TrEMBL record:
Keywords: Dioxygenase, Oxidoreductase. It comes from Natronorubrum sediminis. SUPFAM superfamilies: Glyoxalase/Bleomycin resistance protein/Dihydroxybiphenyl dioxygenase. One of its GO terms (molecular function) is dioxygenase activity. Residues 5-124 form the VOC domain. This is Catechol 2,3-dioxygenase. It holds the Pfam family Glyoxalase. PANTHER family: GLYOXALASE DOMAIN-CONTAINING PROTEIN 5, GLYOXALASE FAMILY PROTEIN. It comes from the Archaea. InterPro entries: Glyas_Bleomycin-R_OHBP_Dase, Glyas_Fos-R_dOase_dom, GlyoxalaseI/FosfomycinResist, VOC_core. Signal peptide: none annotated. The keyword Transferase does not apply.
Length: 126
C-alpha cells in the first residue's frame, strides 16, 4: 500500500455555524454535503465538522471539541497573516516561530478556534 496524502479529517465542534464563521473569515470555503453536513475546504483538502451530538454512524472513540491540533498552509506572508488575525481580534497564542513542515521549513503562528483547537497557520520559507 502507498498512501499519497490527506483528503480530510474531522473536528468535533460545539457550534457548527460559529466554527464555519471563524474559518470562513480566515479564507476557508464552506461546503455542504450529504445530509446538510458542513465542511471547511482549503485547496484540495477539507475538514469535516461533526457537532458533538452528531448522528454520524462511525466516529472517533471519544470525539471531543477542542481536542484538535493541525497546521494550515498559506501562501500569504506571515506578517500579513498576523495583521489579519489581529484585525479580527483573534489572539495569537505563539509566533511567528520557525517550524518544520511536511516538506521543509515553515514560519508559523498559532491560534485557537472557537472550540479551543490549536490551529497553526504556516508559510513555507522561500
Amino acid at each position: 500500500m502507498k498512501l499519497t496524502g490527506i483528503d480530510h479529517f474531522v473536528l468535533t465542534v460545539e457550534d457548527v455555524e460559529a466554527t464555519c464563521a471563524f474559518y470562513e473569515d480566515l479564507g476557508a470555503e464552506i461546503v455542504t454535503f450529504g445530509d446538510d453536513r458542513k465542511a471547511l475546504r482549503f485547496g484540495e483538502q477539507k475538514i469535516n465538522l461533526h457537532p458533538i451530538d452528531n448522528d454520524v454512524d462511525i466516529v472517533a472513540r471519544e470525539p471531543t471539541p477542542g481536542g484538535g491540533d493541525c497546521c494550515l498552509v498559506t501562501e500569504t506572508p506571515i506578517e500579513d497573516v498576523e495583521r489579519r488575525l489581529r484585525e479580527r481580534d483573534v489572539e495569537i497564542v505563539m509566533g511567528p516561530v520557525e517550524r518544520t513542515g511536511a516538506v521543509g521549513p515553515i514560519t508559523s503562528v498559532y491560534v485557537r478556534d472557537p472550540d479551543g483547537n490549536l490551529i497553526e497557520i504556516g508559510r513555507y520559507d522561500d
